[in-house]
Design a protein that fits this description.
Number of domains: 3
Helix content: 55-70%
Length: 765
């Protein structure tokens, strides 16, 4: 039944080969022309993938009266004079800038926050309807703001910069777009060179890669469209893993088919007959291989963490598109080029050679017990090191690329407004009574936070510009100025005190600066704090979050607040860690069961899937153990990026089964007409070059990811992921699939196929 389907498919593709190629080319051009690119939808902030119920998101919601809805983003604008204090000419220019920024599309308000303590800089705040996590609209907003900034004339010594998360994310997105192209180009070049060595022909490498290249363009456009419609969040990991997965797995499927076509040509078949026969024989293997990857990726839908949840659909979509191309476009190209594909090698009839892997298999078949026990013992020792895994590197690099406008703006804020920490941990409290009427709880809370021992700096409503205020002084300024409007309202008008007001310019500037710390109604208050354990993105900061939350809750109780929360990078990544651990415990058994069922259907066996999945788990743990040795034990690091075990499990489980299916289906095919021992030797001899070539291509693609994607400052986690996955693929390819699995097949004999008809025959040695 299955063979008949792929035979009919092969005949149809060969007959309409030119039409198939034209449809794919036209479809690719249309998709790329009409749909948005994948890189335009990349979101650099993992916190955006947290569920709304996460404590860090609840804290952000608590702060909404101050920062607006979570869907609103803000862009600090800092102006710096290279000379003395800002003079009247500078202030006039900043007034024009404030008015000009207010006209930018999607901007809701622009506030004049404060002058720096030394008088040389001023800070404005642009509040927009664009979410900090909306990659596409965020980049457009930042571009529009830069256009507005450049449209205003300034005194010669005044410089204006954008800063903050939105500006930084826009700069990082530009960097990731460049990096994605570099990874794609380097991967294509690497695979081409490797295929030239493997095939020893000019055309075969290019034809094998054409479907992968077209699928990368098509699937990237489809995923970009889903991201632009907010159907899913698209992370940087989605972008880079799609490139590696499509080029690597697509080349694998190409090798499965091209090697079988070449084998038939060497047996004397006509090129068109060779394509039809090859598709009939390996079409099921290719479809089943792709299905295992798709099933493994779709199990991510049970995850709560959006980065995992939203990683599955786009990558599964890419693999499904690759499967379609592998079963239609590639056979059509093979039928068109025929024997010319392998020039200058002559693809003519010849006697099949035993080959290196045939000799390895023959030796293994003679002593399968020794082979299996030795391999399992060696992998088991490596797997023990996996117990030493510790997560780290949750945040990655949140700094803007060096030399970018955002980097200069963030540096200016850090220099002139040290109390406005670029990456603070925000403490939020809500009071039943307005603190404008009774500001004494502010002093209790501020002092309590400072004495908690968890923070190095605490900036809040009583020192918004770095100059301390007493509760009485804050109340006096408020009573004098509030008749003219709230701090938020006045900040949108002028940096000078209202006409008729008796408050000094310094006191008025301080009052304006409270707009970011006290809500207009006085019920919501926040503080920006620096963590004593170190930068908010470090493992020590993440580990300290439960203690920090407990300390804040205690201080809030002392100050009489009715609710409190802690927001920022460390709390967000602590929540990510907790949710990620819970997700992995759910996804692993679901993925194993789903792929086990699929293997049972493909192999018509209930026994083979058991040891095949166990072999993948052993290979996975051994690979993780090697990563622990290489990235923790040897360099003495505290941990490895938390994504590595998860990605290694999903990719090795899915891609490892690709090779299992190819090897096992070929063993079953050969065993139907010969003894099992000779069937294993012939099957491994025939598939060994395919599996090892495919493994080298896929592992090489991950190494390219490690070298190119991990080359920039702060991209060490990309390097770890690339190397970890490459090592896992190589171990799986050269040890597990081509040695241990065939040894297990030989030992189990006919029980491999139970309960199918093949299991009822006699063991044949």
């Amino acid at each position: 039944m299955v063979d008949r389907f792929f035979d009919a498919l092969g005949r149809g593709v060969v007959r309409f080969r030119w039409l198939v190629v034209v449809v794919w080319i036209v479809g690719t051009v249309a998709a790329v022309s009409v749909l948005p690119s994948l890189s335009s939808q990349v979101n650099e902030n993992n916190g955006a993938f947290l569920p709304a119920s996460a404590p860090s998101n609840l804290a952000a919601q608590l702060a909404e009266p101050l920062i607006g809805p979570v869907s609103h983003g803000s862009v600090p604008v800092v102006a710096v004079t290279s000379g003395s204090n800002l003079d009247q000419t500078d202030k006039v220019a900043l007034g024009r800038l404030l008015s000009r920024l207010s006209t930018v599309r999607s901007v809701l308000s622009v506030q004049y926050l404060a002058n720096s303590p030394d008088g040389r800089a001023a800070e404005l705040l642009v509040v927009s309807a664009v979410s900090p996590f909306d990659a596409s609209r965020g980049s457009t907003l930042v571009d529009d703001l830069y256009t507005a900034v450049r449209s205003v004339p300034y005194p010669n010594d005044l410089r204006v910069y954008l800063s903050g998360a939105l500006a930084t994310n826009a700069a990082l997105q530009q960097q990731s777009t460049r990096q994605g192209r570099q990874i794609q180009d380097a991967s294509l070049l690497f695979i081409l060179v490797l295929l030239l060595v493997i095939f020893r022909s000019v055309l075969a490498p290019f034809i094998t890669l054409v479907p992968s290249a077209l699928v990368l363009l098509v699937s990237g456009s489809f995923i970009g469209a889903l991201g632009s419609d907010h159907v899913l969040q698209v992370s940087f990991f989605t972008q880079i893993l799609l490139i590696v997965l499509i080029l690597g797995a697509g080349t694998d499927y190409g090798l499965f088919l091209v090697f079988r076509v070449r084998e038939q040509l060497f047996a004397g078949s006509h090129p068109h007959q060779a394509v039809v026969y090859a598709l009939r024989r390996v079409g099921e293997s290719i479809a089943a291989s792709a299905a295992t990857v798709i099933v493994a990726l779709l199990t991510l839908l049970v995850a709560s963490f959006g980065l995992y949840h939203d990683l599955g659909v786009p990558l599964a979509l890419g693999v499904a598109t690759m499967l379609l191309a592998g079963l239609t476009l590639l056979p059509a190209l093979l039928a068109i080029f025929g024997r010319r594909l392998f020039w200058p090698t002559r693809a003519v009839a010849r006697e099949p050679a035993v080959g290196l892997w045939g000799k390895v298999a023959a030796s293994m078949v003679r002593r399968p017990s020794v082979t299996l026990v030795s391999g399992v013992a060696a992998l088991g020792v490596l797997a023990l090191f996996a117990l030493g895994f510790s997560p780290s590197g949750f945040g990655g690099d949140v700094a803007a690329p060096s030399g970018s406008g955002a980097a200069k703006g963030n540096a200016a804020v850090a220099s002139f407004f040290p109390q406005s920490t670029f990456n603070p941990t925000n403490v939020v409290m809500r009071f039943a009574t307005s603190v404008w009427a009774d500001p004494d709880p502010l002093a209790v809370a501020s002092e309590g936070l400072r004495r908690s021992g968890e923070f190095t700096t605490v900036t809040g409503p009583l020192d918004p510009t770095g100059v301390a205020l007493s509760p009485g002084e804050l109340r006096a300024v408020h009573e004098e100025v509030s008749p003219y409007g709230s701090a938020q309202e006045l900040a949108r008008i002028s940096s000078d005190p209202p006409t008729g007001s008796q408050v000094s310019s310094a006191a008025y500037g301080t009052y304006l600066a409270t707009a970011r710390y006290i809500s207009a109604d006085g019920h919501t208050v926040q503080w920006a704090a620096g963590l004593r354990v170190g930068d908010a993105g470090t493992t020590s900061a993440i580990d300290a979050v439960p203690r920090i939350r407990a300390a804040v809750t205690a201080v809030a109780h002392q100050a009489g607040a009715e609710s409190s929360g802690v927001a920022g990078e460390a709390p967000a990544f602590y929540d990510i860690s907790s949710i990620s651990d819970n997700d992995v415990s759910k996804i692993v058994p679901v993925a194993i069961i789903a792929i086990g069922i699929l293997l049972a259907i493909v192999l018509r066996s209930l026994i083979a899937p058991l040891y095949l999945i166990l072999s993948v788990l052993l290979s996975y743990l051994a690979s993780l153990g090697i990563a622990v040795i290489a990235f923790m034990k040897v360099p003495g690091q505290a941990g490895i990026i938390f994504l590595l075990p998860f990605l290694m499990f999903i990719f090795l489980l899915a891609l490892g089964e690709d090779y299992n299916i190819l090897v096992m289906t070929r063993i079953r095919e050969e065993a139907q007409r010969d003894t099992l021992g000779r069937a294993v030797v012939r099957a491994v001899g025939a598939t060994g070059p395919t599996v090892t070539s495919a493994g080298l291509v896929l592992a090489g693609s991950f190494l390219v990811l490690a070298v190119v994607g991990g080359s920039g400052a702060g991209n060490g986690e990309i390097r770890v992921i690339g190397v970890g996955l490459a090592v896992g693929i190589l171990l799986d390819t050269f040890v597990v699939r081509t040695v241990l699995v065939p040894a297990a097949v030989k030992l189990l004999d006919r029980w491999n196929w139970w309960p199918s008809a093949m299991a009822r025959g006699k063991g044949q040695g």
